[in-house]
Amino acid sequence: MPESDLSAVPEIMERAAMKPEVFLPDDYRPAEDEPFMNERQLEYFRRKLINWKNELLEQSAETIDNLQDSARNVPDIADRALELRTRDRQRKLVSKIDSALRRIENGEYGYCEMTGEPISLKRLDARPIATMTLEAQEKHERREKVHRDD
Known about the structure:
Layout: H1 3-6, H2 9-17, H3 39-72, H4 77-105, H5 121-126, H6 134-149
Helix pairs in contact: 3-4
């Protein structure tokens, strides 16, 4: 291969490693009667997570702009504290979204980290960053409450 063609090798390798895009109709919703976490379901949740992450990042940029503006105009401490709490919450959510996207890539998405059982599609649709079934989450929260009360 001539030297000038070598620069294209990483790009060619990257394209070869990429998965073919999964067709997903605009009105698609995961259904209980299809195989759990099939390609379409995974793509649905991947897109949902990416869209959510992008929305959060846009909101975070707006928060930064608001904080910078309020620093120039005598800031209201309560407003500033609320903006900072909101930004911290968004940062934590983005981290959880990134974690969910990694679980999609490594085939662990949709399964409870405590029991290994499938997490219901309704739960994942409502909270796509969920890592536990509703039952496991409730059990976990009851244990946390007991430990806090000690």
